[in-house]
């Protein structure tokens, strides 16, 4: 099988012939490679023998610590094996031609050193990380000119989206552009995410972002500038509805509020979104629509679907 070109899925096991080292001579693999049940790897030497980094034609890589995509990692992951598993991840080095990387269920294992190397992500277009509870920082992707899609879910210790930003990097109109080619971002169940970047600047901007979905990120309180953002979902976050008036390009807004955000009366800035087609609002607390007689802004003629629930 040394000339094998395609191996879509490989499930690691402790049985003979099922170890990761079985891949060591498959130098011609290309396209998509999915590695499941990585928790079954016995030692770091097995992973080193696999020599994943020499498979230069692999463009999509999925690393999953469970048997299949529908199995979730256990929060009670055996901490006695964490150090050994961390060594394993260190040697699971992907190729620099990667366009898609998905990391699922690594649990208490910290992000390995190869994921902190910018050279690995020169061609990366899509990054998905889920159930990597111990992960505190993302790979250095905030300046990536290739990344178009970012999905993060259940990274319990992640506090900042962009770390290590050089303050000398020039911005645009006083704003620092981060993730310059990112078009889609999903942030789900990130209980400690509270900042978009670790350094304080006037503001940051996502210049190409078109779709943003934020679910259950209770410490996140604002949305940066996103001049062409079209679709926005916010569910159970502390982001106030009246703080979204700067997102003038919105065509779709789905918002489920958090009653703890504010007890004060706030006016929904609906006229700040002149291109809005779909608007769904729920759990609004003390939010009100603007008084038609007290506004000088033109009426909204673009809305085709409107749903408002106060309770």
UniProtKB/TrEMBL annotation:
Tree of life domain: Eukaryota
Pfam families xref list: LRR_R13L1-DRL21
Span of domain R13L1/DRL21-like LRR repeat region: 20-154
Cross-referenced InterPro entries: LRR_dom_sf, LRR_R13L1-DRL21
Protein name: NBS-LRR protein
Native source organism of the sequence: Oryza sativa subsp. indica (Rice)
Gene name per UniProt: NBS-LRR gene
């Amino acid at each position: 099988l040394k000339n094998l070109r395609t191996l879509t899925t490989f499930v690691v096991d402790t049985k003979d012939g099922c170890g990761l080292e079985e891949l060591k001579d498959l130098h011609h693999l290309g396209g998509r490679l999915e590695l499941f049940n990585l928790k079954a790897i016995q030692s770091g030497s097995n992973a080193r023998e696999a020599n994943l980094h020499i498979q230069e034609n692999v463009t999509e890589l999925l690393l999953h610590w469970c048997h299949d995509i529908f199995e979730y990692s256990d929060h009670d992951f055996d901490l006695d094996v964490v150090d050994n598993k961390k060594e394993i991840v260190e040697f699971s080095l992907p190729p620099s031609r990667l366009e898609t990387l998905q990391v699922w269920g690594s649990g208490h294992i910290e992000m390995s050193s190869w994921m902190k190397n910018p050279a690995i992500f020169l061609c990366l277009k899509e990054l998905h990380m889920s159930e990597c509870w111990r992960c505190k920082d993302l790979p250095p992707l905030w300046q990536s000119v290739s990344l178009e899609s970012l999905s993060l879910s259940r990274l319990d210790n992640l506090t900042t989206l962009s770390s290590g930003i050089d303050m000398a990097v020039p911005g645009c109109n006083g704003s620092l552009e981060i993730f310059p080619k990112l078009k889609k971002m999903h942030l789900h169940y990130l209980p400690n995410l509270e900042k978009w970047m670790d350094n304080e600047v006037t503001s940051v901007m996502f210049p190409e972002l078109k779709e943003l979905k934020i679910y259950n990120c209770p410490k996140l309180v604002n949305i940066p500038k996103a001049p062409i953002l079209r679709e926005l979902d916010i569910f159970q976050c502390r982001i106030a509805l009246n703080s979204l008036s700067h997102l003038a390009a919105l065509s779709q807004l789905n918002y489920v509020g958090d009653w703890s955000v504010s007890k004060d009366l706030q006016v929904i800035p609906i006229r700040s979104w002149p291109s809005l087609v779909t608007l769904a609002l729920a759990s609004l607390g003390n939010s009100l629509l603007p008084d038609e007689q007290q506004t000088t802004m033109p009426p909204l003629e673009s809305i085709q679907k409107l749903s408002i629930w106060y309770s």
